[in-house]
Amino acid sequence: MDQIEQVAREHTDITRRYFLQLCAMGVAAPDVSELCAQDNNAEAHSLLTEAISKLEYLTREENFINFGRGKPPPYELPLEKRREVGLVRETWQLEVLPDPESNAEVEQPLSKKLGTALNWDGLMKIAEKKAVRFLHVMSCTNSQEPCGMGLWEGVPLREVIWLSRPTANVRRIFYYGYHNDDPEQRFQSSLPIGRVLEDPPGELPVILCYKLNNQWLTSKRGGPVRMLVPDAYGNKSVKWLQCIILTNNYQANDTYALWNNDTVSHIKTCARFIHVPKTVKAGQPVPVTGIAQVGMSNLSKVQYWLCRHDQPLPKDDPYFTKAPWQDADILPPPDDWGGGLPDGKLPAIPRQFDTVSGKALRWPIPNTIVHWATLLAVKHPGQYDFRCRTIDANGIAQPMPRPFNKSGHNAIQQVKIVVEK
């Protein structure tokens, strides 16, 4: 069985329920009924299978979009070299040190030189009592598509920070991973110490992450240990983590700051297409699927708008707020979470789920994704522009309230569709 067929089987139930519900409502009948009777319609079955194949909720490790640093990237180093520089669990160490360029006071630094650095066994000892799991989307500030959706596991960073016994003059931390022993290749990020030591109401802790989808982090995903900063873009979640510096410097000193990026931007709410046919027959309903990234302002609606390509666009309305948008359906939590989890079941309850019922405390879940779908049927042949957008929980339409790309890519996506006779 190939990968598409396997994923399609994993997600048939949720998508069939959606389309069968449309059938029961009589939407676009009788064509939709014909579509739902997929076993008798090879073409419709093939189309639906392709759409379903792209709806796996958790991204398999090998399918994550990868943005790595270093020449060569650390995961491409030979195993013996990775072992030598601490990029395997058996030799990994983490330092927590005071910034020599500030007056931060730290009584017991975790230092390789002093022989006090945290090793893998020490991290696992903390994990026995303090490990947390949560769902989180990994998204790059400047990329149109999310890199992947994962179930991440680790220990709260604050548990390790307190091992070093900071006592005064600590306003921020900055941290970096292995960079081929070349200062020019170092990629670092920073956080205010308050965000590390205390979680805002309803928020998740910053973690030292060592598992993705209940498997040890691979080297390509930043293992053995990476930072994972909830509600932030991927530049905060530095891979191959090896050093944390406690500093009294009040300024962000992220590598991304030098690249004209907003280094403190929260994840934005926005919609993207997954499956949209390039060519359709007039009057024939076709399934359209997509994902919505659920950011800080959560999500209330996903909408789409189809207009003829030659139709004049309204003036002085760059975000098409006056267009006749229509609501798509936001799909419910899946029965099979995918991602390579055995039987598609989540391991011991993640933070966003009720410990008794096992159900999500809220849906959609902030800083994750949801799938959405609709059936599209166009009566008249021609060339069309097809757009999608989100409405957040505050009633604000994408790309507002933060439309600037350097703080996260959330432009309204547009694709072309040709409708034939």
Question: Which residues sit in consecutive blocks of at least 5 with pLDDT less than 50?
Answer: 1-15, 22-41
What is the name of the CATH class of the largest domain? Alpha Beta
Q: Give the N-terminus to C-terminus distance in angstroms.
A: 36 Å
Shape: elongated
The total number of structural domains is: 2
Gyration radius, to the nearest Å?
A: 24 Å
For the biggest sheet, the summary is: 5 strands, mixed
For the biggest β-sheet, the strand order reads 3-1-12-7-8
Helix content: 10-25%
Please describe what this structure looks like.
- This protein has two domains: 66-259, Oxidoreductase, molybdopterin-binding domain (Sulfite Oxidase, Chain A, domain 2, Alpha-Beta Complex); 268-420, Sandwich (Immunoglobulin-like).
- Strands 3-1-12-7-8 form a five-stranded mixed beta sheet.
- The protein contains seven helices and 21 strands.
- Strand 9 (207-212) and strand 10 (215-216) form a beta hairpin.
- It is an alpha+beta fold.
- The longest helix is centred in the first third of the chain and has 23 residues, at 3-25.
- The two termini are 36 Å apart.
